[in-house]
Design goal:
- The protein is built from five helices and four strands.
- The chain is of the alpha/beta class.
- The chain has a single domain (about 5-160), classed as Rossmann fold (3-Layer(aba) Sandwich).
- The longest helix is centred in the C-terminal third of the chain and has 23 residues, at about 120-140.
Length: about 170
């Protein structure tokens, strides 16, 4: 069971900042054990340039990152998702599509760095903070003994990680 690759979907409304950061972090930190995707309920159609800049500075791949609808992951032929994380409060409150396979879900709310007012440095700082918060939660998640936890315990652990104050 240790060789299982888990499919992760990170959701946000616009799919341009937080969910994009989380997708890249999951794929880098997961080292092939976790295959992450991101999507939005109302995708803006472009990735925030500050997200791309930060990921490149961190040495994380940005190829293939794009703002897309969550409908892609509820369609026939989409990967069967094992875990779904919402990273914005709006997406957490929306009615989601029916996901095949009944994935484990959790809300990991992170303040939106794309809405920070001020100059470029303030925006860069907000993106760094969001990335650090996401990385911490992702690392905690990846340290869980997923294979040995029952569904209820796993759901509780995922919720606990989402409540961590960074």
């Amino acid at each position: 069971m240790q060789d299982k690759k888990y499919q992760v979907l990170v959701l946000c409304t616009g799919n341009s900042a937080r969910s994009i950061l989380a997708e890249a972090l999951f794929n880098a930190l997961g080292k092939g054990r976790f295959i992450a995707h991101s999507a939005g309920s109302k995708p803006v159609g472009r990735v925030n340039p500050f997200a791309l800049e930060l990921l490149q500075q961190q040495g994380l791949g940005t190829e293939g990152l794009r703002s897309k609808s969550w409908d892609e992951f509820a369609a026939p032929g989409a990967p069967e998702i094992d875990f779904i994380f919402t990273v914005c409060d709006n997406a957490a409150g929306e009615t989601c599509p029916i996901w095949p396979g009944k994935p484990a879900t959790a809300h990991w709310g992170i303040p939106d760095p794309a809405h920070v007012e001020g100059g470029d440095e303030a925006k860069r700082a907000a993106f760094r903070k969001a990335s650090e918060q996401l990385a911490r939660r992702i690392q905690l998640f990846m340290s869980l003994p997923i294979e040995s936890l029952d569904k209820l315990t796993l759901k509780e652990k995922l919720a606990e990680i989402g409540r961590i104050q960074d």
